[in-house]
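Hey, can you fold this one?
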Amino acid sequence: MRMLCACRVVFFRLSPLSRAGTMVLPLVSRWSARVLWASPGWRRTYTQRACVGLKRLGCPRGVYSPLAHRAYSVVAGGPEVTLTPERYPVQRLPFSTVSEEDLAAFECIIPGRVITDPEQLQTCNVDWLKTVRGCSKVLLRPQTSEEVSQILRHCYKRNLAVNPQGGNTGMVGGSVPVFDEVILSTALMNQVISFHDVSGILVCQAGCVLEELSRYVQERDFIMPLDLGAKGSCHIGGNVATNAGGLRFLRYGSLRGTVLGLEVVLADGTILNCLTSLRKDNTGYDLKQMFIGSEGTLGVITAVSIVCPPRPKAVNVAFLGCPGFAEVLQTFRTCRGMLGEILSAFEFMDTECMQLVGQHLQLTNPVQESPFYVLVETSGSSAGHDAEKLTNVLEQVLNSGLVTDGTMATDQRKVQMLWALRERITEALSRDGYVFKYDLSLPVERLYDLVIDLRTRLGPRAKHVVGYGHLGDGNLHLNVTAEAFSRELLGALEPYVYAWTAEQRGSVSAEHGLGFKKKDVLGYSKPPVAVTLMQQLKAMLDPEGILNPYKTLPAQA
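Sure. Predicted structure:
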């Protein structure tokens, strides 16, 4: 055992038997060393309940997920959310309104699954951030792509606007109506179609909940290539439609690489079946890429083919405190260089984030208070090899002063406890007041500069200005909270944040999409020719503009 007096960290040289458990770098008073000690079955890093033979997937039951309740808590117990047209300058386009004849036609297509009850419609009209609210009078719940096709065919003929909706966990108002659009929910399209246990290729309907799919493939020794804080509610179709990034992007890359094929229903009801399971198919244009990230504006995704990586045999997570952002960057550089292929996540958060998860969610900081924190995850096939590599890294960053305190876990329950500190920041922010959210891609060396800049610029007008995100991807989640929505504060933030990002040649949307809130700032990240081409593509595939109107693209003059 060696004492690192400079940073008051006790570093344990574990015996071979003990090293198979969990190493605790500091003996912090709030968590005893025993808290992060691995169970005898530590090698099973993904302990899941059995659901053998499950083909129909629904919402998870009795399984911890920080944001699993998102879509169902948006209006209960709080003030009514302001209607979107009353808060934002937007005018209704000349679409038809739903008539009794339309409702009768929908009932013929999907008997018993046409919802008009105002109480049931309430949560579907409001985003989970409680920032935008539509006034749709009808919710449709199809179960098959053919039913989606018949619904869209009718809406296309009648010029009825349609709002596709998955788990309603989006951050930019893209998943709820702006006015009275028909809500087309994929919630009942939740069946696994096939899974190949050699290739790891999963084919499923778009309404499958990500956490349920994760459980399904984990039982077959695979994992989903993406993981999100909202996994308990979000749908795989919505993930693809928004090109969601998430916590595994550093290791497994974008959905543009892992999605092999899609089934999509176009605006006029045409079913486009490109649901291939081939890893290589170089015939013609790759049409699926048009719909990945299109946010339901070009077609409704009804089924997905996606390749799943093998389940890692060993997962380690370290949670570390850093004295400054420069040390965060150096710690990332060290981890990337020394961990190589087993580095699967590198997340950072500032001290205000930690204070908020403690204040609003009563989560405990497992290390001494620091200006910044990083979460490092490794995933590999050899527990001993991975633990040794991570141990060497932690020794390096501790000895060099890059890290002042830290703790490490291999047991799945303790791994989840450490991940909760990062995953539940969004939830804590939502309880702090009205949240102005920005999802930016920036050069990694400038990632935190905007947070510091805005604290000075906003002063006491903001309750909190916090920064966290996926450092390994150059993705900053910038959040500003206030007691209530303020046009003055919004004016101080926009377009300043977007112009600042553009000056760094960054992106105004790293992974959340543009939705309703960010559609008019597309020009900060794309040249006029690109925006025009996108508008032409939209006009070709959806000439009447009925699919998710008012979203993704700026309005044409």
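The domain at 8-63+312-422 is CATH 3.30.70.2190 (Alpha-Beta Plaits). Let me know if you want another pass with a different chain boundary.
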